[in-house]
Predict the 3D structure of the following.
Amino acid sequence: MSDPVWLQQAQRHLGTREWPGRHHNPSVLRFFARAGFSSVRDDETPWCAAFVNAVLADAHLPTSGKLTARSFLKWGTPIETTRRGAIAVFRRGRSTWQGHVGFALDADATHITLLGGNQSNAVTKARYPRSKLLGLRWPSTA
């Protein structure tokens, strides 16, 4: 079975990263523009949600319409089991509003591997603890 179209789109951006210094990577700025936030003109603004929204827009799926990771907790349909391509939302620190969002690749008993933006300032694959998982979502139209 092949990956969902949005996950295929996301994988094309692996390796995209912020540029150090005063210049900004146009690819990261395009994530903001595709997400509907072309007013963001720097690659230091947290961009995990911009990445997910841009990928969804490119796949002709609804977006969350916001630049916050936790906005995806109200997006699509909740699912209980990790599926490849599901949107996974994690809490960050002790904050009640901050978080991280990306696309689930695989999972084990303790971690979920995420393809996401702004992971070490780049689009990467990284493992996140299940203990910080707030929710898994699947597109309502898929």
In short: Residues 5-138 form a domain with the endopeptidase fold (from Nostoc punctiforme) fold (CATH 3.90.1720.10). The mean pLDDT is 96. The two ends are 15 Å apart (CA to CA). The first strand starts at residue 77 and ends at 79.
